[in-house]
Amino acid sequence: MGMALCTIGLSLRYRTPVVVAWSTPGAALLTTVGITGWFDSLMKRVPSSIAAALLAGILFEIGIEIFHAAEHQTALVVVMFFVYLLGKCCVPRYAIPATLIAGIVMAGGLGLLDFSRFHV
What we know:
6 helices
């Protein structure tokens, strides 16, 4: 519950998607590092080219996964791609939520959603 509240609160506060996840030792470490200012001093020592390369590696992996998905779920990827492009042109603020909704609807239409493991 705490992770959900922190995620929602930080996302609303900074108006950008923020995901919070922790374990008890991880939370203690993050609190200690945040309070002492060690994280800021550590990040100032990391060259921006290294940080950019790390980000590029992550984004490259995500891009490759999109192409793998396109091999197996072509209709889903194509619909989401065009909804994103159309949304970016017409309503840029809502392009990402529209793409998410289109993906969920399309996945449901293709029978890709499996809720059998959810119990209420």
